[in-house]
Specification:
The protein is mainly β and 124 residues long. The protein has strands at residues 3-7, 10-13, 18-25, 32-39, 46-51, 58-60, 68-73, 78-83, 92-100, 113-114, 118-123. 0% of the residues lie in helices and 51% in strands. The protein starts with a strand and ends with a strand.
């Protein structure tokens, strides 16, 4: 399995921006489709965004479309989530996930590896 480490979370005011990073190690990064998920207190984990192995296939949850941008740099083994116009309802622990040989998907059960998560808190 690939090991994943997220970073970039923090506290931001509503309307602000954050950029999350997830760096992979242990396997060939370009063999993995990557996804971002989040889980708020008392809620189930939900899909945020996903990107295919080459970066050309991208999906977003409706709730973040137009505000968040997912991208990847295969040379740096890193996937990013640029989050703009943040809202208090975006507050959650954000996780990155990797699916070997896959295409971008919102189905969390298809992902093989998960990071430990990074907290994002948006104050009103």
């Amino acid at each position: 399995q690939v090991q994943l480490v997220e970073s970039g979370g923090g506290l931001v005011q509503a309307g602000g921006s954050l950029r999350l990073s997830c760096t992979a190690s242990g396997r060939t990064f370009s063999n993995y489709a990557m996804g971002w998920f989040r889980q708020a207190p008392g809620k189930e984990r939900e899909f945020v965004a996903a990107v295919g192995r080459t970066g050309r296939v991208i999906y977003y949850a409706d709730s973040v479309k137009g505000r968040f941008t997912i991208s990847r740099d295969n040379g740096k083994n890193t996937v990013f989530l640029q989050m703009n116009s943040l809202k208090p309802e975006d507050t959650a622990v954000y996780y990155c996930a990797a699916e070997f040989g896959g295409i971008a998907t919102a189905r969390d059960y298809q992902y093989d590896s998960w990071g430990q998560g990074t907290q994002v808190t948006v104050s009103s």
